[in-house]
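Fold this sequence, please.
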Amino acid sequence: MTERLESREKVTGAARYAFEYPVENVAYAAAVQASVGRGEVTAVDAEAALALPGVLAVLSCENAPRLSDPPDGELALFQSRTVSYRGQFVAVVVGETLETAREAARLVHVEYVSEPPDVRLRTDHSGLYKPDQVNPVFPTDTELGEPEDAFRDSAVRVDVTYTTPAEHNNPMEPHATLALWDEHGTLTLYDSTQGASTVQKMIAQTFGLDATKVRVIAPHVGGGFGSKGIPKPNVVLAAMAAGAVGRPVKFAVPRQQMYATTGYRTPTIQRFRVGADADGRLNAILHDVVEQSSTVKEFAEQTATPTRVMYQAPHRRTSHRLVRLDVPTPSWMRAPGETPGMYALESVMDELAVATGIDPVELRIRNDTDRDPESGLPFSSRNLVACLKEGADRFGWAGRDPAPGVRWEGRKLIGTGVASSTYPAYMSPNRATARAEPDGTFTVRIAAADIGTGARTALALIAAETLKADLGDVTVELGDSAFPRASVAGGSSGTAGWGTAVVRACEGLRGKLNGAVPPEGLEVSADTTEEVKGRDEYARHAFGAQFAEVEVDADTGEVRVRRMLGVFAAGRIINPTTARSQFIGGMTMGVGMALMEQSVMDEEFGDFLNRDLAQYHVPACADVRDIDAAWVEESDPHLNPMGSKGIGEIGIVGAAAAVGNAVHHATGIRVRRLPITPAALVHDL
């Protein structure tokens, strides 16, 4: 049990975040957002803003420098007069102070020619199409057997539609960038990012620079949840503004502007059809998804992919259809695809359990499989059943009355629910260096990101174990693109990918250490590209089981989560302290998804109505009275040198379904549209 190595820095304020780095002669930027949902900018009047004392520049489509080759349409800032969605950045003001910049931004007058935006996701939209693939490189559709016929001929059938709303990442640290150019044309970015190497590459391409001319520094990041996985417009805005005024520029996206400019989870409409025999064994699974992207770029969430691996059924189909609307571009949000997809799947499995009269835990066990149902690959390890059984025992599932709406405590209805979880065990190529210092200590460097997950501590533990050294003798330096290239902190792949590179570098260093370290030290580099390419073919996934108990006020419809338990099978747990924190954090986000979170679109103006955390509700400690996470011991030799699987996202997968299933058990009401609000329950109680 190891505490975070940087914990003292964080609680004392010594840990610096992107906006906090002190630089001389710094200026501040404030963005101007489009006030129409679709149209063209016809004129930008910056006269009043420029007349304000302390204003240094106003940039817009009328005078912004031309960018080279932005790899992402959202980074093509001020390169066109087209307004693709309300809230898009259309100008930036640079001022001597933040207050000056913000006041001047209000004085910039932008004229438009506009037309009504198309912003509503629906299943009959004429623009629906089949994308070439879904995130990251999965096939859009899959089909085995005769799913339509098999469903029609099944003894028990469930045919339902589940919908999830748009949801927004809300990291504590906003998207923030400090940009400065030196006299040699080198751009340094202090950025709140999940991937310094990724930002370096994409921003270099955007500005037409060699990658060596861009340095990204991000040793501490205050959360990301996917929204900081690739650079967002704030990075280009800060860099462009700094170049225009010849001074360092700071820009932090205000919370109110994040809802349009930093990504969100796409809403989904999911039709699910499952057919089974009388004993609950699945015969057919059909999962058809409709979701949205923007007109700026395509982002197709992989919502149906977990259905492809969870349960055995000889006849199956999954599909994704996308429509490009006049909305901001969706992006990654913790466990993209798996989270909304598993919410629908695990809710449907609960409906099937009710229809067959089979216990929900037993139903899942009956449909377990030792091979990927679609690819036929064996799982490197799959301990879903162990998680379900261990969780049921710990939670006190035995003796549960399956009848819904019968357990009362005063005016409160009580119910319990269960859901399975899964998430792929990804591993990406990475590089790292390990250095033996003359004083007997070791330094490991990699451009990985610690976004609050404890990555720095986990990598230090991995390095110390490999070097057979004391943890106190190992220093891990990360969050700098000047260090060896690292993959993004996403896809629950960080520890696996970064850790493997660290292990190989440390192994190489140990092999070269013969007695005393030379005065200049000794350093070894490692690159795991070929190792990742050469792995044997297995289906690699983490699994888990989530249990929830809720109470529902019969008078008001208010839902409170009394207790939650998650049991996971995620390979070797590197650091139990931070692992438990990760699991519980994900589960808490699952509560928010189930009961609170939704970004509401104004169809007339084409804008999300939510503007801050007063309007977009997320769960706090008091919203989950008792929450716990555990894991089963799992040895998997087919993963990586540590035997670990990712844990950052599996905690949220399944959590919302467990809560929703518990609400149904408490009330007998099946809510198929998230979030489950009092209004969705009170009229039927």
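The two ends are 46 Å apart (CA to CA). Residues 436 and 442 are 5 Å apart (CA to CA).
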